[in-house]
Every structure is written in C-alpha cells, then in structure tokens.
Design goal:
The complex is a heterodimer of chains A (179) and B (370). Chain A is built from 6 helices and no strands. Chain A is mainly alpha-helical and 179 residues long. Among the domains of chain A are: 79 residues, Up-down Bundle (Four Helix Bundle (Hemerythrin (Met), subunit A)); 43 residues. With 370 residues, chain B is mainly alpha-helical. Chain B is built from 13 helices and 7 strands. In chain B, strands 5-6-7 form a 3-stranded antiparallel β-sheet, with no helix packed on it. Chain B has a two-stranded antiparallel ribbon with strand order 1-2. Chain B has a two-stranded antiparallel sheet with strand order 3-4. In chain B, helix 5 runs antiparallel to helix 7. The chains are: A mainly alpha (179), B mainly alpha (370). The interface between A and B is medium-sized, with 23 and 24 residues.
C-alpha cells in the first residue's frame, strides 16, 4: 500500500471517528461510525488482510450498524441541545484521554518500525489461510465461541419474548389471528 | 499505461451496460404490465407528436426512455420543512452507488486477445468476489434507511423501517444461498465459477449450477426479489398504507435515483442468478475452438467470435431473468408483513442452512474436500 494512500485513509479514519463523538445528532454520529468502519476495512484490505477487511464491511458496517440505527429509531433519540454531564466528569474524562494519548505516544516511540516492512507470505490474508487457522489450529475454541454466541442469542430471545395467550404469565389479552 | 486504459474501459462498459439495461427496464416494465393485464401500454407519450406526423406506428419505447428522464430532471427538487437537508440529498446516491459498484466483479464474457493483449472481460478480477457482493449489498441498506428518516415524514420513516428490516432479513437467506454456491465451485471468484460451468455431463447436459444447486437458485431468486423490494415484496412502498414509503418526500432527480436503484437491483439479481446457476457467459457445447455438439459434430469458430457470442449470451440470459422478475411482479399480489417475515426467517433461512449441510455431505462423500 503506497504511503500517501495510507496517510489519506488514516486521516479519513481519524476525521470520521472524531465525527462520531462531536456530532450532536445520533444518526449523524452513526453514519460517521459507519464511515470509520468502512475506511478501516479498506485499510485492512490494503495491508493484505483481504478477507478480514470484507468481513468487517459485511458484519460491522452492513449489519451491526443497521441494528444500531434501529435502536436509535426505536428509542426515539433526539438531537442533544446541549452537552449533558457534570463538569467534574468532563474534567476526569479529559485527564483520562490525555493519559491514553500519552501512553500511545510512548508505545509507538518504542515500537520497531522494521516490523511493518516484513514480507507477507504468499496467500496471506486469503480466505484459505484464514479458514485453515480457524478450522485446524483453533477449531475447539472457534466452535466453543459459536456455541456461546448461540446461547446468547437464544437467551436474548427468551428474555425479550412476550408470553403467548395460552402460556402462564400472559396478561389474558386476546391477540388476533396473526399471533 | 495500456493496462490502465483497458481497465478503465472495462469499468465504463459494464457500468453503461448495467445502467442502460436498468433504464430500458423502465419501458420493459410498462410494456410487460400492459401485456400481462391485456391492455395497450406505454404508447401515449408522444413528444411533439412527431411519430404520428411521420406515420410511424408506435414510438412508445423511444418516448418513454426520453420523456421520463426529461420530466424527472426538470421537476422542482423539493425538500420538505424540517427535513435533514444533508442526508435527504445524500440518501438517493447512498442507495444507488453500492448497487452500481457491485457490477465491477461481474464477468460478462470470457477473455479476448487483441494485438497481443489478453483481456479478461471482467472489470475487477477479485478472488473474494462473493464476499465483495455481500458487502456492497449490505451497505446498500443505508440509502433506503436514511431516505425515509431524513424526510421528516412518518409514512416515509415507517417505509424505511420496513425496508431496512426486510433487507437485512433476506440478506441472510441470500448469504446462505451464496455460501452453498461457493462450496459447490470451491471458489469465490465469479470468473472461475463461469469457467467451472463449461463442459458437459453425460455427453450432453451443460455443467450449469442450476442442476447441482436448484435449492440455492430458489433461495437466491426469492431473496433477491425481496432485496429489490419488488411486488410481492413491496411492503416498504405499500401505496395503500404508506403513500409511497421511503421516497414519499422525494421529487425530481433524487426520485429518479431511487427508481434507478430499484431497476439496477433487478439487473443485479439477474446477473447473479445467471453467473451462479446458468453458466454466466457459457453457451452449451460451445468451447473456445467452436461448437462440439452432443452427436459428435463439430463446428470450428475463431476465438474472437466465440468470445463475442459469450458476451451476447450473458446479456440475453440477464434480460430473460429481468423479464422473469417483471412477470412475477405483475402476477402475484403483495404479502402481508407477518407472512413476509415468516417466509424469510422460518422458510428461507432454515432451508438455506439445510442446503449448506446437504451440500457439505455430498462434497465429502464425493471426495471433493481437500
């Protein structure tokens, strides 16, 4: 990936992620977040992790952010007229942010710049290499994670579901034929 | 330099082909609906009455193609009171753009060799093309979702909510269908899929995907029609309930953009079905050196002619599937919303999962797994 392109994309990612926190309108914030995720996906692709980049675009930008949009709509979030929160919170927030930036600077000052120039193995980042890592090297962990996610999904549905009219706990309200 | 020029040319060609087909579909749809409803249609727009003066019989085709864009682009571009002006203007392009860039990975022909340059007829030879398609289709939701929200109109917002829910529900079925297809061919590259569909079984049956993945074809066709929000899946627009759904508050060029998106999506679904299941640019029994008919007869042909025939065959198949979608649109009534969700989540998704499991079993039993 050419350096100029990398700097352009990195600047775009920073600007759009700043947009997420600066925007007052929740939908505008969400759009800025989508843009950040897409720019990062392009960075992934440019740096050789092609499959991860596309999965990022599909899963995060294409699916999860749409659910965020739904949450914003369903909670009917409005534009924040003035910033909320106490002065003390803002003060400590600023200190914490400054500490994080300082830590990052220290970390990158001591990082080895030669690591980035390492030659990539042929086939690096392809679907085949990713699949062989997931389904050969870490098969058990991968399957256990998927079962965990499935349990979480079933649990969320079980909690969110209203009991039907014939089940215990129903309020006795008759619903239509569509129930 | 010349490579760059060829690449740009290919990108422009596929984009123009897709856009023009989408525009022609506008007339196609009117004529098709007239045909199905047994009436005369799309013959009344006569610019300056020129056709009549010259005694030409029916200029409905030309006039629809010319009159419609002129009408739409000269209308006032109206933004309603209290709307989010920026997003209201952005949304139509956010809807159209992802559909158009999807055509970049579509192989619309085999390779041709001109003056020592071998040109693969595909704008971008991406080896993860199937993932790219899923990504662009996923991003396409935002235009529709934000169009209704930015309009400051409750009917439009309801249309957006319906459209978004429908699109993300059917995207899953679409993804499952594509996974089965990818497993069958063992590649994500659409050009490689087309190559894999060359040749014959039993000496006469073309090796098209439809014969090995009929279930995936049904899934992709159904989910694709739901994605393009066509009747019987046009609940986001539901005129009797929501005026016009998410583009109620749009007029002029932006409205045209949303319309073009719908038609471009029809073309896209047809293109995907053709590539995955009907051989793409393959013609039965036609190889790079000519026809090899089942009886053993052979008809030699120059390479260039074979490639051009392939390109024509591809677009003929695409037009057939566009016509098929219009046929369904004017035949079936609209679903109820609960029926739509039941079909998506309780019908197509389990069927897609079963299809993947069955495909995996067959591949392993046939010893195709590496």
């Amino acid at each position: 990936m050419p350096l100029a392109l990398f700097i352009f994309l990195a600047a775009l990612a920073i600007i759009s992620s700043l947009g997420v926190v600066i925007q007052r309108n929740p939908v505008h914030s969400l759009l800025a977040l989508v843009m950040t995720l897409l720019v990062i996906a392009v960075l992934f692709i440019g740096l050789g992790a092609v499959t991860v980049g596309f999965l990022q675009a599909i899963v995060y930008a294409g699916a999860i952010m749409v659910l965020f949009l739904f949450v914003i709509w369903l909670l009917n979030l409005q534009v924040e007229e003035r910033p909320v929160g106490h002065l003390a919170l803002k003060f400590f927030g600023a200190i914490a942010a400054a500490a994080l930036v300082a830590e990052l600077f220290l970390f990158f000052a001591h990082a080895h710049p030669t690591l980035a120039a390492k030659q990539l193995a042929p086939g690096y980042g392809s679907l085949a290499s990713l699949a062989s890592v997931l389904f050969k090297d870490y098969l058990v962990a991968f399957e256990a994670t998927s079962v965990l996610l499935l349990v979480a999904v079933v649990g969320a549905v079980a909690i969110a579901r209203r009991p039907g009219p014939s089940e215990p706990g129903a309020s006795g309200v008759k619903t239509g034929a569509a129930s | 330099m010349i490579e760059l020029l060829i690449g740009a040319l290919k990108a422009i060609i596929i984009l123009l082909l897709a856009l023009n087909l989408a525009a022609i579909l506008l007339w196609f749809e009117r004529k098709g609906s007239a045909l199905i409803q047994d009436r005369i249609g799309a013959n009344r727009a006569a610019i300056t009455g020129l056709g009549k003066k010259l005694g030409l019989p029916n200029l409905g085709f030309v006039n629809t193609l010319v009159a419609d864009p002129i009408k739409l682009f000269t209308k006032e571009d109206f933004v309603p009171e209290g709307a989010d002006r920026f997003l209201h203007s952005l949304a139509p392009f956010l809807a159209l753009f992802p559909v158009l860039i999807t055509f970049a990975v579509v192989p619309f022909g085999d390779q041709i060799t001109i003056a020592g340059h071998t040109i693969v007829l595909q704008a971008a030879s991406l080896d993860v093309a199937a993932l790219y398609i899923l990504a662009t289709i996923g991003i396409g939701v935002y235009g529709v979702a934000l169009g209704g929200w930015a309009s400051n109109n409750r009917w439009a917002l309801l249309g957006s909510v319906r459209a978004t829910a429908q699109m993300i529900s059917y995207e899953i079925a679409m993804g499952l269908a594509i996974i089965a297809v990818v497993m069958t061919y063992g590649t994500l590259d659409l050009q490689a899929m087309c190559h894999a569909q060359g040749g014959v079984w039993f000496g006469w049956l073309p090796r098209w995907g439809i014969f090995v993945q009929p279930v995936a074809f049904l899934l992709l066709m159904t989910a694709g029609m739901a994605e393009s929000k066509r009747v019987p899946f046009d609940l986001p627009e539901g005129e009797s309930e929501l005026i016009a759904g998410y583009f109620t508050e749009y007029s002029g060029g932006k409205q045209a953009c949303f319309m073009l998106t719908d038609f471009a999506e029809i073309v896209l679904v047809s293109v995907l079905v053709t590539t995955f299941f009907f051989g793409g640019w393959q013609i039965p029994w036609l190889y790079r050196d000519g026809f090899h008919l089942p009886g053993g007869a052979m008809l030699a042909m120059p390479n260039l002619l074979v490639a051009i025939l392939g390109v024509i065959a591809f677009w003929v198949k695409v037009v057939i599937f566009c016509w098929f979608q219009i046929l369904i649109r004017w035949t079936l009534p609209r679903f109820r919303y609960d029926q739509l969700m039941r079909l998506g989540w309780k019908g197509l998704v389990p069927l897609g999962l079963l299809n993947i499991v069955a495909t995996a079993f067959v591949i392993v039993l046939a010893g195709g797994a590496h």
